[in-house]
TrEMBL record:
TM ranges: 20-40, 52-74, 125-147, 159-183
Name by which UniProt lists this protein: Formate dehydrogenase
GO BP: any one term: formate oxidation
Ranges for domain Cytochrome b561 bacterial/Ni-hydrogenase: 13-184
GO terms of molecular function: electron transfer activity; formate dehydrogenase (quinone) activity
Family matches, as PANTHER family: FORMATE DEHYDROGENASE, NITRATE-INDUCIBLE, CYTOCHROME B556 FDN SUBUNIT, FORMATE DEHYDROGENASE, NITRATE-INDUCIBLE, CYTOCHROME B556(FDN) SUBUNIT
Keyword flag Transport: no
GO cellular component: formate dehydrogenase complex; plasma membrane
Domain of life per record: Bacteria
Keyword vocabulary terms for this entry: Cell membrane, Membrane, Transmembrane, Transmembrane helix
Keyword Cell membrane: yes
Location within or outside the cell: Cell membrane
Species this protein is from: Shewanella xiamenensis
């Protein structure tokens, strides 16, 4: 079977990861929207109160989602952390050409890209920002919501700034993440629907992952899976 036409499915995103991602997406979208409204304050007092309430509810959902996934899939969380915080010369080369996306979109040309593992360098950067920024958002949000008048004023101010910066950074990443997710439509379907990517797509975009980690499932030898 020629690699460029190999349609065998590789399980890239198991069901528990997809459920976590659904809830994360559905909670962060209203968080980002209401966060911007709370920052710019364009609404009436009643509108701002409703915005605040929606922000709190969405924040609780996101926090529960993160805690539940960490407890129930701790091994995957550890592996994800190891992946996104790994760094090599390939990452430097990837960022030097920004994954080849500007050249492809603006100039219509394809440039050589260093071989990537399960996540490319841009995804690793985004993943690190989600881990750090998401943790800061949850912890600072809890303090700002539950004990803003009991905690030391300087700590509350610092947490407020951390909450603001983390939220703005992740919100700025969001449109880029959504655009590239749809552009890589096979990967988008894998994360949002069935969890599988075709072998040829994985071999093109993540050759090191395919080479080092993909193994046949013993039941039928046709579907492939990985860590």
């Amino acid at each position: 079977m020629h690699q460029e036409h190999d349609m065998r499915p590789i399980l890239k995103h198991p069901l528990n990861v997809r459920i976590f991602h659904y809830i994360l997406l559905l909670s962060f979208l209203p968080l980002a929207a209401t966060g911007l409204l709370l920052f710019f304050k364009p609404l009436s007092q009643e509108g701002m109160q409703l915005t605040y309430d929606v922000h709190i509810i969405a924040g609780i959902v996101m926090a529960l989602d993160a805690v539940a996934f960490t407890i129930m899939a701790f091994d995957r969380v550890v592996l994800f952390i190891a992946r996104v915080f790994s760094f090599s010369g390939r990452d430097v080369k990837w960022f030097m050409v920004l994954g080849g996306y500007p050249q492809k979109f603006l100039l219509g040309k394809k440039v050589p890209i260093p071989p990537m593992n399960k996540y490319n360098s841009g995804q690793k950067l985004f993943g690190a920002c989600v881990l750090i920024g998401g943790t800061l958002l949850i912890l600072s949000g809890l303090v700002l919501w539950l004990i803003p008048h009991s905690a030391p004023r300087d700590i509350v101010w610092f947490l407020g700034q951390a909450h603001l910066v983390s939220g703005l950074v992740l919100t700025a990443f969001l449109p880029v993440h959504l655009f590239l997710a749809v552009y890589r439509f096979d990967d988008f379907k894998a994360m949002m629907i069935h969890g599988n990517v075709p072998y040829h797509d994985a071999a093109e975009y993540t050759p090191l992952w395919v080479k080092n980690e993909i193994a046949p499932v013993a039941t039928n030898g046709e579907q492939l899976t990985s860590k």
